[in-house]
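ok here's Ribose-phosphate pyrophosphokinase, seq below lol
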Amino acid sequence: MLVPGASSQALAAALADELGESLAAVEYDRFPDGETLAAVPGFDADAATIVASTASNDAYVELLQLQDAVREAGASAVTTVIPYMGYARQDKAFEAGHPISARAVARAVSTTTDRVVLVNPHEDAVADFFDVPVDIVDAAGRLAEPLPELDAPLFLSPDSGAIDIAETVRDAYGEGETDYFEKVRHSGTDVDITPSDADFEGRDVVITDDIIATGSTMSEAVGVLADGGAKRVFCATVHPLLARNARTKLARAGIERVVGTDTIERDVSEVSVAPVLAGEIER
Ligand code: R5P
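and the structure came out like this:
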């Protein structure tokens, strides 16, 4: 039985369809003091697959509550699908006295599940922080589907670390070159992007990345391309977090369109990762 987290309800329903399984009747509530309560009244299956992105602290607590609730209701096998794993980018202690936050949340999740499935985490090594087996799904290929017909397409990643995503999207699209920018991050919202050597004037460019968070990285890259004479600039991202004023930054930079998946359910979530997740879960 599929058990949706509050922020992954559409994806859980799509995954239930793909797998031919039923959806649990989940209730999300909040006490007057602000504490959350996620419950599964009437849950009576032996196996539970919880689908919950953790883009907020509340979502993490709800995930832990759902894992505990299905165990209480008698589930003997629990799989936890975390389509977008919050805190995954805090994968080291950046200064003395800092926590390794990704490890802290991974350990907590591991206490009441048997298996975890992640979609394009920032670094695959985050899997090592869990105390249960972890499978990683690459959904970047889905991002090619909503793209229109492109003129002499160039698929660019904002840094060398994300070139795999550019290549995957290009391969799924079927044609085009790939390249990457050099990126220097000065702070959470201050990013410098140095143009690639690729000739982008008059061409359609798709900038690909695992996540758009504050939009600082993407808007810098879009600005460089728009100023340099690119024809149209698209952003394709697995996790369209789009925090704070990210949309405004992208619009002001001259973006044509953002396409994303439903690991984080937003209006730009044009494609579902459900088919790729179903393939992994059934494997
Ligand atoms: C960093 O290496 C990631 O791949 C993304 O480029 C980054 O996390 C995006 O964050 P923001 O949208 O805040 O620039």
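fwiw The two ends are 17 Å apart (CA to CA). kinda neat tbh
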